[in-house]
Design brief:
Strand content of chain A: 15-25%
Shape of chain A: elongated
Distance between the termini of chain A: 87 Å
Largest sheet of chain A: 7 strands, antiparallel
CATH topology of chain B: PH-domain like
Distance between the termini of chain B: 30 Å
Oligomer: heterodimer
Radius of gyration of chain A: 31 Å
Number of strands of chain B: 8
Structural class of chain A: alpha+beta
Order of helices and strands of chain A: EHEEEEEEEHHHHH
CATH superfamily of one domain in chain A: Pleckstrin-homology domain (PH domain)/Phosphotyrosine-binding domain (PTB)
Number of domains of chain B: 1
Radius of gyration of chain B: 18 Å
Number of strands of chain A: 8
Order of helices and strands of chain B: EHEEEEEEEHH
CATH class of one domain in chain A: Mainly Beta
Shape of chain B: elongated
CATH superfamily of chain B: Pleckstrin-homology domain (PH domain)/Phosphotyrosine-binding domain (PTB)
């Protein structure tokens, strides 16, 4: 198989900073003698040179799908790069100090493209969630107006009768919880939540309009992002409804 | 240059981020466009004869330039040798654009820049370093200002 070796060599020797570099002893494949080589780690490519100032690497180890392990070898500070697969080779390397060995094991075990990709996707997701969370808030107070607090039993009741809402899972900021708990109409005498269908059955509240997210990446976050004004309007509407119901309920208790 | 060919061949058999039959020309004198199975796996672009299991070759996509050429065509060249172009002729302009987009993001260096960017953004918003949970916050390769960032 051809490899773009010239470009590879350029990549190895160019002045882009290495993720790790230093002398390591590399055990030979056929002969088990160790050879001291200058190693340079860039991304998921581990290059090795005969000398520190060699113009071209002797070779490269592509670090995808490997495990890095410590060795019980008689040579001190030895570790191995092991690949899966039956006929795969294991590269045995030895550092010149404990610190060097630990540094190499750490950087090699996280050197794969796959690992980087997992971390980047996780951070990307975190950032998107943070940004959606900010927009979903009202800006102002998230508490319902007045002293109203949901009675536990009422809340339990309404939760049980909630239809499965595909939209907003409960979140820490309380907004979505508020929506979920009351949004679907199931308080006993609820009549005004978002209107009725033909049979006079209370309908779940209308979903707020989908806000177009500004960049392409966030399109994958399928959470419904509500515009603040719509949310606040709905919020107000439900809280008025609830206040009214509470008043009714309280009056009936007398 | 020696390299762990077995592992690279194994990588070529992994599920690809993108794969398609595309006509390709290598930067060699007298070479012509030939139909190849082109497969993107991590930061490698493998290319196969359409009926073969083992790739003819692999391109490591670091320090490369992806250029949209004429209609349906894009090229890959490497920074040190910009005139040596690997040319790819797609079936449609849409396919061509998709490949250009995908290849531009296919390098380790691009991932690194993305990581540094997200890390910085999250830190600005929360005051906390999101890499701490991975135990890699101290690594030089993830610092803002590293690698010409």
């Amino acid at each position: 198989m051809k490899l773009n070796e010239r470009s590879l060599a350029f990549y190895a020797t160019c002045d882009s900073p290495a993720d790790n570099s230093g002398f390591l002893y590399k055990r030979g494949e056929r002969h088990t003698a160790y050879h001291r080589r200058w190693f340079v780690l860039k991304g998921n490519m581990l290059f090795y040179f005969e000398e520190r100032d060699s113009r071209e690497p002797v070779g490269v180890i592509v670090l995808e799908g490997c495990n890095v392990e410590l060795c019980d070898s008689a040579e001190g500070f030895a570790f191995a790069i092991r690949f899966g697969g039956t006929k795969s080779r294991t590269y045995v390397l030895a550092a010149e100090s404990q610190a060097a060995m630990e540094s190499w094991v750490k950087s090699l075990s996280r050197a794969s493209f796959d690992y980087m990709r997992v971390v980047v996707r996780e951070l990307e997701k975190q950032l998107q969630e943070m940004r959606s969370g900010l927009v979903g808030g009202c800006g102002g107070s998230l508490e319902p107006p007045g002293p109203w607090k949901p009675k536990p039993s009422e809340l339990e009741q309404s939760r049980e009768r909630l239809p499965a809402l595909p939209a907003i899972p409960p979140k820490e900021n309380g907004c979505a919880v508020w929506n979920n708990a009351l949004g679907a109409d199931r308080l006993p005498d609820a009549s005004g939540c978002g209107g009725h269908d033909e049979e006079e059955n209370p309908r779940p509240p209308p979903l707020p309009p989908r806000r177009r997210v500004s960049n392409g990446e966030a399109a994958s976050a399928r959470a419904i992002v509500e515009s603040p004004s719509t949310f606040c309007r709905l919020h107000e509407k439900y809280s008025r409804e609830v206040a009214r119901l509470r008043q009714d309920w309280q009056q009936r208790q007398r | 240059m020696r390299y762990n060919e077995r592992e690279l061949l194994s990588l070529a058999r992994q599920p690809a981020e993108k794969a398609a039959e595309i006509r390709m020309r290598v930067p060699k004198k007298g070479s012509v466009l030939k139909k190849r199975l082109v497969k993107l796996v991590v930061n490698f672009l493998f290319y196969f004869r359409t009926d073969e299991a083992e790739p003819i070759g692999a391109l490591l996509l670091e320090r490369c330039r992806i250029t949209k050429e004429e209609e349906n065509v894009f090229s890959i060249s490497f920074i040190e040798e910009p005139e040596r172009k690997y040319c790819f002729e797609c079936a449609t302009e849409e396919q061509c654009q998709e490949w250009v987009e995908a290849l531009k993001k296919a390098s380790y260096e691009f991932l690194r820049r993305s990581l540094i960017f997200y890390r910085n953004e999250i830190q600005k918003m929360t005051g906390k370093d999101p890499l701490e949970q991975y135990g890699i916050s101290e690594e030089a390769r993830f610092q803002l200002g590293a690698h010409g960032q």
